[in-house]
Amino acid sequence: MIPQTDCSQDDFSQENQSLNNLLLTYSQYLLPKAGLGNNFLEAIEQLFTGLKSLRSDTNLTAIITPEIKSELCHNQIPTKGWSIEEVIQHIILKYLGNVPNYSGGYAPLNIVPPSLTPAILAKIACAIINPNLANETYAGKTIEAEQLAISHIAEIVGFDPKLAGGYFTSGGAASNYWAVRFALEKMFPGFGKKGFKAFFDKEPVIIQSVLGHYTNINAARLLGIGTENVISVPVTPNFQISLEALQSQMEEVIQQGKQIVCLYLVAGYTDSFGVDDIKSVSEICETVCQKYHIPKPHLHVDAVVGWIYGIFTNYQIANNPLGFNLDTLNSIQKLNNLYSNLCYADSITVAPHKHGLTSYISSALIFKNKQDLLLLQKDQEETPYFTGDSFSSFPGAYTPESSRPGDGPLMILANLYALGYEGYQAMIGYAIQQSNILKSKLQSSFNSSVEVLNQNIPGTSTVWRFYPTGIEAQAAYKRELFGTSEADRIFTQKMNDYNYNLFGKSKVIRSDKTPILGYSNQVIVGQSGTPISGWKCILINPFVDIASVIDHLIEILNQ
Predict the structure, then answer these.
(1) Per-residue b/e over 71-103, b at no fewer than 16 CB within 10 Å?
(2) How many other CB atoms sit within 10 Å of the CB of residue 437?
(3) Cβ–Cβ < 8 Å for 119, 414
(4) How do residues 401-438 score in pLDDT, each as one tens digit?
(5) 377-407 exposure pattern, b = at least 16 Cβ within 10 A, e = fewer
(6) Distance between CA atoms of 408 and 115, rounded to whole angstroms?
């Protein structure tokens, strides 16, 4: 059935009645010239009714049966369009099936939070209004929302909000990539125009920890640096880049006549949530560069995980107004000590679609000095269709994308103002408290057969590793970390296989109410060079049932 259209016959030419009829049929999917129209409101009601049914209190990935091949073989674009009811039922709702119910608390497998209502409303509103953050003409006041969001986040991480600047990107990977692109322009002036000729005889190098995000490898591949020139430095057992190894590696690279363009650090590693000592790295960089009389490389920090912990810098630990337990207060103090060093970075990547509790995608690159954006500026001749129509604000002049939706900044702004510092402190603080409890329960429930790998790392992540009966976990993990022999390497690999096989069992016995736990093939790397894997549970959702996590693990080990 075709619903009553919001358009009239007068809106179309009278020359071709057949075409006019088709336009009347399909123009129902356009929003009216003003307002939202009855068609849209009725469709929204139908969609939300379907979503309510889809979002039952269950784990939708209990049984995943991919049908991609059959779908590709049998589905075809229809000659005549479907009704909106059919599209909702057979396209939208169908392909949103088997997605974990993140609001239900069954999926603490990674940093994928439940999106809060303010963020959802902001995203829906942006989809309707459809701003493009390229310039003011396309974006209206959404441009101001982006600048305000960048300013607020800058303040949270310890930058001066009046001096900092940045923009929202298509994700953390793009943000990291563009930070490296900036570093090249900073170290090799004119790189954007000259290309590889700007390097002359200096090979550009990126230095990161062995746990650095793979996006840097890809950035080196795409930007012409070369993956061989991404140098990985070992980390300590506390998941921090080794300062001694870093300084040694920097000096070796400089003596080889190469140019370090970027030091890439992490404030919240993906699995362990470990934090590099940014202040000490900055001091080492200053010392080494003075010694060799060379310019300082760009210091970029990937804080997609940890930027939110800056909300605790103004928490009154002594008064403890939110009533956290003592372990949580100790964790908050540790977080404040670790994340107070973010201010030593030249730029950071943040991702509110993680701990910020927004929907995808909300991610930004922020420079401590907004003047740095000038190095990414395009020539006016490159964007004639933008510059002629721009009034005062033209982010498209320096952003990699010319098409950027306004939902990223608007979602985090909506959440920041709906929750305030108090709301975020309560939710994130409670998640930290639950994580501490989970770590304790793992130790008490499995005794010497489990090792919590990030026991002393504050945050919402718990990473652990099981060992077979007869092998004492603490001693075994120490051997995996510090052993260098071939026997040690083989032992580590056997324990990797043991844990991965257990994880495979967890998927087989998964039920509607079973928590979906995560697994990483490389939580840390031992001195033998062998990656050490581990299970992970990241408690962002306050409704995750810790007891069900422990019960599920007991069931797996008893299989």
Answers:
(1) eeeeeeeeeeeeebeebbeeeebeeeeeebbbe
(2) 16
(3) yes
(4) 888 999 999 999 999 999 999 999 999 999 999 999 99
(5) ebeeeebeebbeebeebbbbbbbbbbebbbb
(6) 12
